Amino acid sequence: PALTAAEWAEVVAHVREYYLAYARRPFFEAARLHSPGFNKTVLGMCTIGVLALAIAEELPDAELDAAVSEAIRSAYGYAREALDDDGGAYEGPGFGAVCISAVLQLAEALRRHGLDGLSHYEPLFQHALWLSSMLAPGGGTLSIGDSTGPDNIFPTILLLAEWRNDAGLRSAYRQGLGRPDHRNGPYGDSFE
User: Fold this and answer.
1) CA geometry: angle at 11 spanning 17 and 116, to 5°?
2) CA distances (Å), 149 to each of 35, 92, 176, 177, 178, in order?
3) pTM strictly above 0.85
């Protein structure tokens, strides 16, 4: 069921007063400036960017621009600080994939608003290839440290496969699921 006008106004007020204001708190500003590779920074800022885009029509341009530009800056900062040249994440495949998944959600929200802030950033695709190397034959993931798991890895691979229209990444995703005939995309769309 759709929200009533009053319910929508309540959602918008909460996003503005809590989430968008949160990004301006001293701790968060310091973390964003001095620790761009910190997972809580990128998770928070990408979420704030997605929320700002979700209520874009309700925000003054300056407030929307500030939230989105800070989210994009945080996403690039994380990718630059946390990903190696080969796509490996210093936080490992679990935390790294979760953080990149947040970056991808922001990038998809930007794309749906006609903005292209991240979709051609090569380290993101290298990360998908790195994650794909951890998929086990016949399904599941290889156990590497304490942070691997299909719940973290699969969505990241699938989103990047869709963006790049990459059959190899799609195939890796299907094999990792143990379902070579799996045909659904990240948003329920068919691959065909």
Assistant:
1) 85
2) 26, 11, 11, 11, 14
3) no
Alpha-carbon separation of residue 85 from 50, 68, 80, 107, 157 (angstroms): 27, 26, 9, 21, 17
CA–CA separation, 103 and 98 (whole Å)? 9
User: Which of 32, 42, 52 lies closest to 115, judged by CA?
Assistant: 52
**pLDDT tens-digit profile of 52-74?**
999 999 999 998 998 898 888 88
Contact yes or no for 180/139 (Cβ under 8 A) = no
Distance CA(29)–CA(26), nearest Å, equals 5
Residue 110 CB neighbours (<10 A): 21
Phi, psi values for residue 142, rounded to 5°: -75, 140
Q: What angle do CA 81, 167, 145 make, to 5 degrees?
A: 45
Each residue of 88-134: pLDDT tens digit? 887 777 778 788 888 888 988 898 898 876 767 777 778 877 777 77
